[in-house]
Amino acid sequence: MTVLWIVLAVIVLLLVACVRVVTQYERGVLFRLGRMKAVREPGLRLIIPLVDVLRKVSLRIVTRPIQSQGIITKDNVSVDISAVAYYQIVDAAKSVLAIENVAAAIDQIAQTTLRGVVGRHTLDETLSETEVINANIREILDQTTTEWGVLVTLVQLKDIQLPDTMKRAMARQAEAEREKRAKIIAAEGEAMAAASLGQASDTMMAHPLALQLRNLQTLVEIGVDKNSTVVFPAPLMSTIGELGTFLTRESAAAAEHPPVPPVPATDGREAAANGQPVAASN
């Protein structure tokens, strides 16, 4: 009876050692006596104990953060940039045979590629053309990782840290840019307002009653405030013209009739000496 139990235990151990389960998102790379035999698909797989070795490789997309590192841009500005890379193993056999540690290799090659690509761009290009930089990094990584059976699906710049002095300079630049746009918009508004006023004046010159209607509308607007101001509208240009005519007429009259200077008072002796009559006094 004891022997039977021992035989059953050995059989169970052999079955456990022979059976492997490959999940749906994995592939099994089978080595027999150190040589790759085949790639096993998902499901229940049997191997020969002590002869076969089955290495499971995940085919799911892996997220690999690229740690922040100091990079000098093309215009000699030091920035700290971190990124994230997404890759997927598409050839299980190559990922096992061609490279020892896929994750560590992707991490190192991504850091060096990020430094090289950003170093070829200026700071403004790095901040504004992130999509181009991401595409360049991904293309370079694909050329290297294809031999490893790895496909880099996406690379994104995650964070860009600028020096404090550069932040202040960029803030001043942005403020100056906003002031420039504000002045341009104000100037355009003044030009449009002047054009509209010119059109309105032309309309009023063609229709004199329009000015009177505008004056009446102004009276209505003033009356809403319930103040004690009384306004009597009058055509401004005609009033100025009448005032000019009045001043011209007064000037002409003053020129035609100059004022007679007054005669100073003198005594009788001076008048007699000058041959002027002297009035008698009582």
From TrEMBL:
User: What highest taxon heads this organism's lineage?
Assistant: Bacteria
Domain Band per the UniProt entry, residue ranges: 17-174
Instruction: Tell me one Pfam family matched here.
Output: Band_7
SUPFAM superfamilies recorded: Band 7/SPFH domain
Q: Which SMART domains match?
A: PHB
> Which residue intervals make up region (Disordered)?
251-282
Q: Which family does it belong to?
A: Belongs to the band 7/mec-2 family.
* The name this protein goes by in its record: Slipin family protein
Q: Which organism is it from?
A: Kribbella koreensis
